[in-house]
Design a protein that fits this description.
The protein is of the alpha/beta class. It folds into two domains: 105 residues, Tetrapyrrole methylase, N-terminal domain (Cobalt-precorrin-4 Transmethylase, domain 1, 3-Layer(aba) Sandwich), CATH 3.40.1010.10; 118 residues, Methyltransferase, Cobalt-precorrin-4 Transmethylase, Domain 2, CATH 3.30.950. Helices cover 27% and strands 20% of the residues. The protein has seven helices and ten strands. It is globular. It starts with a strand and ends in a 22-residue tail after the last strand.
Length: 247
Amino acid sequence: MTVRFVGAGPGAADLITVRGRDVIAASPVCLYAGSLVPEELLAHCPADARLVDTAKLTLDEILAEMLAAHEAGFDVARLHSGDPSVFSAAAEQMRRLDAAGIPYEVVPGVPAFAAAAASLKREFTVPGVGQTVVLTRTSARATPMPEREDLATLGRSRATMVLHLAVNRIEQLVEELLPNYGADCPVAVVANASRADEIVLRATLSDIAERVRAAGIVRTAVVVVGQVLTSSEFPDSHLYSAARCRD
């Protein structure tokens, strides 16, 4: 028996990987966060699969489901929105599985920041403009941020910054970013990326908070900050240059 953590993608049901779809189809037990994972993905589950919405379960209750499946010899598909490598709470589950001696695997998925970049039709690493992307979040009701990972510190490089779980405190976010990025720095907010109800806002740090509030966006959004969002004057990359040695 194996637990497989599956990145279910950013929202659109067809942004699941082929491997992830096949894992779902072969698993007698499927644990999923109903508030984030598209219900259409459950159509890939076996007809008699046990489906458990974990949105309101505690960590202990989730692990109890995995343990029961293990004892019964059933494989488990554990669906996480986006990709399990960032902001998924998968690490604490893996730690419990390690302690219980239950094997597990990870199937990567399309992360929210990649879906946001696709919706914006922008590359987040533009030659001569920005070659570093900082993926982070802010502290509110979530787990506190580690020391030295506050926005003022992270923003000193003026690298492209992608913030998850932060749009509901957009005013505080702007206040912390302004000293490093400046009021005219481009900002984009993509809510419900890849879904039919997707909302895309483009603004600057000076007016993004007002735009967000006017649009009524309070959750399930990615905030992107950086010059890569609007830059058009930049050098071609060396990758396809005629001067590059290809021997």
